[in-house]
């Protein structure tokens, strides 16, 4: 079964809670929350105060993606707020093994994200520790981009790596996914789809959610 994590980066910030609750009613499985610092990626987004303001207002688990230079500075607050999953970028962690273990020891699921051009070899010695691996299918920082085609080969390679090692981490895919290309993403090996613009700009959110989960024809 494919899970759907709705990226609130594409929500209407003036009506953020309404959009979150609409997505929940439409059947999404998680809220994908991108924290951007303007350094690791060329954009600013949410911080801890915004996340704190929506805690308890939705039953959806929070799936937090740290696009920051200093992820270690966010971990304690995110654990305190009860987020379900914390994703850190391999490119921003000098001590990736330490970071993943710190998150897991706090009782939170720990995931590693890879930018489009980052090879899977960076996972060689830590993939066994991961609850999930996030493959970015756009260059991170902005919503509404088009999926980079070669990244689907990377998703397929990651699925093969998982099978060869006999592991069970989830494969999450984020960037430029819509109802037109989601089937290719699922066929490549995605277990968790991240989508924002496609969901929050939809005229029929429930139908869009069904399609993004691979149910039914476009």
UniProtKB/TrEMBL annotation:
The keyword Zinc applies. Substrate binds at residues 7, 65, 141-144, 174-176, 196-197. Its cofactor is Mn(2+); Zn(2+); Co(2+); a divalent metal cation. Its EC number is 5.1.3.1. The active site is at 34 (proton acceptor), 174 (proton donor). Belongs to the ribulose-phosphate 3-epimerase family. NCBIfam families: PRK05581.1-4 (NF004076), rpe (TIGR01163). Catalyzes the reversible epimerization of D-ribulose 5-phosphate to D-xylulose 5-phosphate. HAMAP family: RPE. This is Ribulose-phosphate 3-epimerase. It comes from Caldanaerobius fijiensis DSM 17918. The lineage of its organism: Bacteria, Bacillati, Bacillota, Clostridia, Thermoanaerobacterales.
């Amino acid at each position: 079964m494919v899970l759907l994590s709705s990226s609130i980066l594409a929500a209407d910030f003036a009506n953020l809670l309404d959009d979150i609750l609409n997505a929940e009613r439409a059947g999404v499985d998680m809220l994908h929350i991108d924290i951007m610092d303007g350094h690791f990626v060329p954009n600013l987004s949410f911080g801890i105060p915004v996340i704190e303001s929506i805690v308890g207002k939705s039953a959806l688990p929070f799936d937090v993606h740290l696009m920051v230079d200093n992820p270690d500075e966010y971990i304690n607050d995110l654990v305190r707020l009860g987020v379900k999953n914390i994703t850190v970028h391999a490119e921003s962690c000098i001590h990736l093994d330490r970071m993943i273990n710190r998150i897991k020891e706090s009782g939170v699921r720990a995931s590693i994200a890879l930018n489009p051009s980052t090879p899977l070899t960076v996972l060689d010695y830590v993939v066994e520790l991961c609850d999930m691996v996030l493959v970015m299918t756009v260059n991170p920082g902005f919503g509404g981009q088009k999926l980079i085609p070669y990244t689907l080969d990377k998703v397929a390679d990651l699925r093969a790596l998982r099978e060869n090692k006999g592991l069970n981490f989830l494969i999450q895919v984020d960037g430029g996914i819509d109802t037109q290309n989601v089937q290719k993403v699922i066929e490549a090996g995605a277990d968790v789809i991240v989508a924002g613009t496609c969901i929050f700009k939809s005229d029929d959110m429930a139908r869009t959610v069904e399609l993004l989960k691979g149910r039914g024809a476009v």
